[in-house]
Batch of 3 targets.
Target 1
Amino acid sequence: MEKLTIIKVGGKIVEEEDSQKQLLADFKNIKGNKLLVHGGGRSATKLAERLGIETKMVNGRRITDKDMLDVVTMVYGGLVNKNIVAGLQALGVNALGLTGADMNLIRSEKRPVKDIDYGYVGDVKEVNTEFLSTLILQGIVPIIAPLTHDKQGNILNTNADTIAGETAKALAKVFDVSLVFCFEKKGVLMDENDDESVIKELSKNDFERLVAEKVIQGGMIPKLENSFDAIAAGVKEVIITQASEIGKASGTRVQ
Amino acid sequence: MEKLTIIKVGGKIVEEEDSQKQLLADFKNIKGNKLLVHGGGRSATKLAERLGIETKMVNGRRITDKDMLDVVTMVYGGLVNKNIVAGLQALGVNALGLTGADMNLIRSEKRPVKDIDYGYVGDVKEVNTEFLSTLILQGIVPIIAPLTHDKQGNILNTNADTIAGETAKALAKVFDVSLVFCFEKKGVLMDENDDESVIKELSKNDFERLVAEKVIQGGMIPKLENSFDAIAAGVKEVIITQASEIGKASGTRVQ
């Protein structure tokens, strides 16, 4: 099987000009097949504010009414995605910007309302492995915005970590997938006050013990649970690292 | 050669929910290979207004400073494009939303400043015939937003009629291309006060005579000049018609 590196980068890095430039240069240097999933939340919040649309977050997730859906469609699918594509093309990377609606790549369902109505937010149901792998094998580099569709005409706002994870699992049938989640720190830390205390390798047993010991907590827990899910579904490795370290053998390796 | 129908639809039709729905249903019914180029000017102007950005037009062209470039990137590349894609996917059309930056499909150059500085506006230099025709021959239906790039990292705002014309000319090497320009009237009219006075067939000689006689004037002249250019470059036919008539044998046939 050929190798495929899937990089997920959050908002801040792709939204500021200098850090985006560095990211794209680093991304260009990754050898072989690759795919980028990006966020854009800060820009969406900023645009919403300028338009007088209130941003409501619950458990770190954006409540997406019709107006907010238009905002994220514009920011994620347009502004952030197309600027990354143009930036990579300038570096000679054959980037193609996509949402889950394009070629029906990622079908989702509107999240059912239980305690909270998240609005136009999608839970991923199906990734079109065939189309996506065909593009990649043609030398195209997909740049995926965190938007999916329900195949009934609606765009749905979808968490970028989830898109990266589900895409990695689907493509693991065709490629040896390395999934890289970029965040603010150099990796999962043994001591949150020591940025250098990166855990190099993390097994599921270690993870469960460290959660019980409250060494690992907060938003890192769902991120790692997703990572172990991906491994269980055939993804070869998941790396949690800083954007500046992509392509290097650093960060926390989940296996 | 296989047939390919290229449809260009302006802003209003794709920007209003009801007319967009009808357009997509009509577009779905076009048999064989097809490609859609859309506008979105009205929505861009509306968003710009809400953001306190002034819209300046010269000779029907939008002056595109950095703020306006962000607006059109969001509206054309995000909002309008992705809603069309999701709408077509719901109808079973395998739509893929694109700008000229994606896969380096359409490279342009920033328009040189002479009397007027149009800002981030691109003149088309090169269409990537190979990638575009490969997609189409795979059964994919490209939906192209009026944005290109300069391959130096900049998105450039580009007239949708020009994109349709240049794409048609490039693809004429691979396909028997019918290029359909949709506008408000049923076709080119002999009498501007009689909507039924459609000229069925228009040759270059007829055109020149009718311009001299001032039967054809205003914005229709550059549209028809572009059409004759396309014919001269190998496009099989150019049809000027109303959006509601696409796929039917009506309107004005330029040849």
Target 2
Amino acid sequence: MAELAALAPGALVTSGADAPPDLTHDEALGAEPVVPAAVVHPTATEQVAAVLAYADTHGVPVTARGSGTGLSGAAIPHPDGILVVFDQMAEILEIDEADMVAVVQPGVTLERLDAALAPRGLVYPVFPGEYSASLGGNVATNAGGMRAVKYGVTRHQILGLEAVLAGGQVIRTGGRYVKGSSGYDLTQLIVGSEGTLAVVTEAILRLHPRRPHQRTLLAPFATLAEVTGAVPAVVNSGIDPYLCEYIDLVTMAAMVDQLGLELGVPPELREAALAYLVVGVEGHSEERVDDDVARAAGVLADAGALDVFVLPDHSADALIEAREKAFWLAKGSGADDIVDVVVPRSRIDTFMSGVARLAADHEAWVAGCGHAGDGNVHLSVFQPDAQRRRSLMRALFALGAELGGAVSGEHGLGRTKSAYWLELEDPAKIELMRRIKAAFDPRGILNPGAVLTPGDTP
Amino acid sequence: MAELAALAPGALVTSGADAPPDLTHDEALGAEPVVPAAVVHPTATEQVAAVLAYADTHGVPVTARGSGTGLSGAAIPHPDGILVVFDQMAEILEIDEADMVAVVQPGVTLERLDAALAPRGLVYPVFPGEYSASLGGNVATNAGGMRAVKYGVTRHQILGLEAVLAGGQVIRTGGRYVKGSSGYDLTQLIVGSEGTLAVVTEAILRLHPRRPHQRTLLAPFATLAEVTGAVPAVVNSGIDPYLCEYIDLVTMAAMVDQLGLELGVPPELREAALAYLVVGVEGHSEERVDDDVARAAGVLADAGALDVFVLPDHSADALIEAREKAFWLAKGSGADDIVDVVVPRSRIDTFMSGVARLAADHEAWVAGCGHAGDGNVHLSVFQPDAQRRRSLMRALFALGAELGGAVSGEHGLGRTKSAYWLELEDPAKIELMRRIKAAFDPRGILNPGAVLTPGDTP
């Protein structure tokens, strides 16, 4: 502790025992909180570099933490390790309107960034649902969210990084440009590596023009297969939806009942509908958005929607917020685990039929919603028996992989999903990733227990 | 030769001496052609795997080649090595309209892919100018082109790969989805690695709806600084231009004179204009495109354009084609080398002022055009003396780096730009990249001489 404090003058250094309990966990369901040996709140990159050089020399594990809103346990500290908390490195360093980039420290939250960009008519288009999340955490997990159908995910917005390597060297990757073909893309390799390759201390984010007009359509369908079938038509119609979400019967009922949503869907339709598609359009003029709403409604009707509702703004906002908060709804309802499998979007209904079968086989209850536009399925799994639940989770992930998908679309593997992934993934790729890990972090100090080691499956 | 033929039954195997001279080079200016020891034209991934396993065991260099249209010498073979030519692996394996992806073999050309997509109302939006280029080559160099201002570059479109590792193992990365947070992103690491990490045998490409209506505006400006100043306004206006190019006085004069372009710019304006901005807009309806053209014209006029011309379709096509063929114009005019530095787009005019100064200092002549929307500057360098030219090139790259840019935006380093890059890049990053290279290719058989070794600077 004294050595750390001397190495990082200006940083707040405490023992793990003195740190607030909030720092012992993130939002991963069922993961055990861990008290680290020490907590450092750096105020500058050099302090992070000094801490990492020290940790590397002494073989001490280091875990980086942003806001702690992660859902896979990647920010859970190591009991013998140092937790580096970025709450004191939370500055928006620059908003460069000419190059349309923002330069941020890792502790900046999505909420603060959005508040700074809105008055300038700009947007950072990654909206993963939890806006108290930090940009550093978003970079670590390659956060996605509802607008990926139009804008892609975090990795598509990260143009460059400042990062500290395990030995304490500081590197800068990329820059304020979209194009680059000058050596290996270290930026893209570090994005999504969940703090296991390097610790990010600054990011250059791509900004986009903010479309001031938005409208939301809600379409009930008789089956999820019809919802899945409608998606390509919606995406390919040229209306360029910025969200395209499905919500299943059970999740919709929970939203309506628990949150008191008023969506204007008459009872007889609610009884006939097994799934809903929510489509959001946006634009620079009211007129164009009106036109796109009309076209989207036509496409949805042609695709077999039972009806199409253009929601009043307050209902639309409430629905989108409810959708964003679906995790909290699941947690509040006592879900035992959550899943964010990604599959090709054409396979969502096949996947969900399989899920229903697997849930029945495991006497579990599974409900969900998801990003229909990009095949990212969010499920809440209710089965209190750990062994049966793990068997179900394993089967769900195997089914996703069989359909051409992956274990996690946006939450990351962290400590709670890595074991499932390690079982399913091609051993040749895992060996290659281990060699890449060793190329960055030969002593294995960066976030051990996450991604490449089977962590703590709840 | 006999061993190779036995290992890869079905593949055409010839000696380098028997191969057509075209296979000894790509389009890099001034690079020396090299006759390889052997040439293999595989017809299937297993043959590539067998060849790589053999090469790895015997320490034989392997160079992959698509159409050979590269501009940095990454496809130039090694004299003791095997050249793997993908002209027999050139199938479009699938166009999946539901997931909006195409699955292609590396030898497929952009031209053929576009012809297959157009009737379906889809587009693969990377247009790097040379449409006989192969997708395999595009993946290797992370090809860019004019539409990057709207759609990004190759890496933004590549969702997954099949690739053969140095030892002959075949891996599959990514899939038919945009989101993924399941381990390190091998796809993005292999894209742009110029055949030094793995040999790509299949790619999953993201497709977009094809906008059938397009219009082109041409705006002469008194100075390049005004062109650079106009770009953020154009990009941020919400018209979402799909191209935003500048052309300097000299390049425009060469295009008009040598290609007989009729652009309707009166002589007095041509005399006053030092640079031109070309803006392309596209959309799903004629009406919207008309509206965007009017808005773009207003933005350009406000930004100080001397005039704004909405080009008739045939003139627009001729101008864009001329711009795409600027490399051939440079080659035909006897350029000694070419540069595709990328800088933050706000720094283009600063960079170009510096370039003029450096050219004068080196008694050289430099002209160019570039992707104003994304800061990618294309220059033709005329200075026949190799030593002075290299000194000028070094200075140009150093200036680009000083302004926050990189050596190559889209051509890659290959063999002809790697020496400059190795001089300028942070040694900590180069060492890290060498360790990554060793993680993939411990014996160094994949494209030695490119990227991480100072190749043959012309």
Target 3
Amino acid sequence: MPPASLSSSGSSVLRRIESSRLFQGAVIAIIILSALTIGAKTYELSPWVERTLGILDTAITVFFLLEILFRFVACPDKRRFFLDGWNIFDTIVVIGSLIPLDNSEAVLLGRLLRVFRVLRLVSVLPELRFLINSLLKAIPRMGYIALLMFIIFYIYAAIGSMFFAGVDEYLWGDVAVSMLTLFRVATFEDWTDVMYATMELHPLSWIYYLTFIFLTAFIFLNMMVGAILEVMSSEQNAREVQQAHDERDRIVHQLDAVQEQLRALTLAVQAQQPPDRRA
Amino acid sequence: MPPASLSSSGSSVLRRIESSRLFQGAVIAIIILSALTIGAKTYELSPWVERTLGILDTAITVFFLLEILFRFVACPDKRRFFLDGWNIFDTIVVIGSLIPLDNSEAVLLGRLLRVFRVLRLVSVLPELRFLINSLLKAIPRMGYIALLMFIIFYIYAAIGSMFFAGVDEYLWGDVAVSMLTLFRVATFEDWTDVMYATMELHPLSWIYYLTFIFLTAFIFLNMMVGAILEVMSSEQNAREVQQAHDERDRIVHQLDAVQEQLRALTLAVQAQQPPDRRA
Amino acid sequence: MPPASLSSSGSSVLRRIESSRLFQGAVIAIIILSALTIGAKTYELSPWVERTLGILDTAITVFFLLEILFRFVACPDKRRFFLDGWNIFDTIVVIGSLIPLDNSEAVLLGRLLRVFRVLRLVSVLPELRFLINSLLKAIPRMGYIALLMFIIFYIYAAIGSMFFAGVDEYLWGDVAVSMLTLFRVATFEDWTDVMYATMELHPLSWIYYLTFIFLTAFIFLNMMVGAILEVMSSEQNAREVQQAHDERDRIVHQLDAVQEQLRALTLAVQAQQPPDRRA
Amino acid sequence: MPPASLSSSGSSVLRRIESSRLFQGAVIAIIILSALTIGAKTYELSPWVERTLGILDTAITVFFLLEILFRFVACPDKRRFFLDGWNIFDTIVVIGSLIPLDNSEAVLLGRLLRVFRVLRLVSVLPELRFLINSLLKAIPRMGYIALLMFIIFYIYAAIGSMFFAGVDEYLWGDVAVSMLTLFRVATFEDWTDVMYATMELHPLSWIYYLTFIFLTAFIFLNMMVGAILEVMSSEQNAREVQQAHDERDRIVHQLDAVQEQLRALTLAVQAQQPPDRRA
């Protein structure tokens, strides 16, 4: 397999370049530059600056395209390249940036996709990648709590739009709008204004708001407590078991030595027995 | 007991149907459909859709009635069926749905009871049932904190309506209304508006608000810390004791072996003694 | 000491009465009744009800007076009675209630002191008393954090009133008023209104608000984390040390037994030595 | 080295003075006095009081100057004096106070620097110094979370100013202003007003706000959980390992004794062997 080994040695050079601090730094610098041009475009700019930014944008797009191609070539296993979520993400963002900005129809979509280039910072910095991974791991844990929350919001929204639609069509018109209003209440955002309005017609409607706030706050609190405990106990469990093993191994080894000594002693005692009594 | 065994074998078939994934899936699908019809009714609808929803509602009610009867028949012990809180809850919700929606007087009650059908999702999904059970377990722990909070709210409300009733009858009219206002202050909802109004007449009333906010926040914080610690320590305690036992059992067993060796050795030494010295 | 023993047997009867569930229940009932009359007085009442409440108030005052005297007599050690903070608290509240309500000048003070009767519920219920004690224990832990917070508030308030007094005299007039405004900002209560107003004159004043919010939130967060950790580690430490001792004691005892066996074995071996070699 | 020992004995006297409770108390008292004069200046004052405060200010500046010189002289190692961050901080604050207050141009800067004298309380009280040090230690832990938060804010701000700049130039004009608006949304400060305004033009913009709130709340929550866990596990780890060592050391020592006994016993048994069998 000379060609394979050749290619492998070639790609190992590429990989050494890829993982060099200079290359990484250059990519990070270009991403930050890209972020700055995105931010700059939200300001009023003179045509001259606008044109410069356009050229810069093309240059950045080309750089990112070359960088992803380079990383693809440097990757020893081409199939596994697209099994990594971060590579797929990078590729989509880069391909999305190829949409030209002068086409008046797709201009908004093109600009939107360019914004996501900033997220490439996450895929490039290993610490942020690790952070995101650990955040993603926390999601399933919250799945059923989120479902429960949704059910509570839905029931309260259905009741709310049933009773309060007449009070304020904008806030309680239908179940979707009511859920948005309830989310507002859950964030305590001017929730008393909402309550005082409905209390004009339904004087007891404060029960509705208070039970809702207590329910959501109670579930949220328990969710947080649960999250802390779950991560903690799983992590600690592993750590403690490991530590206990390490510590006790010393005792076990010492006990092994004791048993060894005893065995030797027993042999010595037996060897001492007069020959006539041995049989 | 042939009839009993017959019925038992019959009900075991029913139970197998009941716990089948298909049956569970059908029930969940119907509950979600029911939730959607409830949501749909909060929108402006054409008479044709309205009529279809009415028919759908009847069909869902009949399905739920049949489902609960089926589960009752499938249950091996009829008495224990109604000892399970979830079964009682399901039965009440289903019976409540039997109230006809065309009767103009009971229409609101009927619609309200139909909303609670969505809660059946909780009783059907075991994960949500488990979640609710663990939440219910957390309630007693918070009982005395809630009482303490109520006492603080009551005292501040009594003082508030004593001093500030003249400032704003709507906010401080009586002790009940004052408690609602204080709850608003506790959620930081436009609390400075309330304070600035009373500070016009009572320039030192900021003391009232600040002590109240500090007290409630302090108790809330401690409650949360307490909740985390209580659940944690009880859980961890059990885990650690178990683990410590497991680990130490190994050492104890090894020590047992050492003692066994020593006993054998002692016997060997004693056996070695000349016969004349044994007596 | 016959008189002493007589009095002691008499006071033991009183103490049995005092700690009886009936007596405790009666006291709790009267406190709740007292709380209700306090609440009732905040409503508009007919003269007839008002008069009834007045009589009820006198009756409650007399009852509380008798109760505290009874508890004082029932107390075996009169000196220690006033060393207990709860007894002092009860006595002050009861004596405060003796201020007559018809005297027009002291009427507000009298009513205020009557409000604190509700707090007697805390001194009567042991669970609440325990809760308050554990809350009081948490205060010193927060002492230096509170001082640090005060310093930060003071510095920001001094800077605020230095720069923003011209913008809004009411919010930033002097250092005291500025601290109140900053507390408002810390609770996120319409803080952007305050910021937008000062940004008109000082466009960079958002730095002031953001650094302040980050500082207070950061310190608050760390305080909470610290509180959880401190309580936890002290509690857990005690628990773990205890448990570790219990578990290890078994191993240590077994090792003692091993050493005992070894000593016996050594003696047996020495006893076996021929008499001539012993000296 | 007589001169060195002389100077060292002289500085040890100074150091004894420096660490005396009286000296410390005087410094704290002067700092508090300094804080009060800073606060007093924010009020409307009569010219007489103003003049007195001016004299007081000069006196405090002189006192602080003498104190820092004294501490510098008392310090045995002059080089290490400026390696301590607290000393550098004190020196800068004191030198900053030397700016005269009557110079009309630098008056604001001079007053601002005088405000920071209050912070000297932190450098003087060891408990606050310890607190600040532990807070500073918590910062790096939050570094990458802060970066992630900034990226999310930046992306949302870029999208926001792209779509909503036409709705409200003041809130969404450019990327910087949008980030401020998003920070407002993250603190739930009248965020629905912002949302309802943009929903007029973009009815689906609630998705923008809800995803933003969920993302920031989710990351914040995880950051808090992470902070609790990290501090806890590192602290607990150290504590547990220490405790486990202490406890197990006892067992290990006892096992050493057992092995010693066994060694002695083996020697005894070997000594017992008849001389002819020894070789």
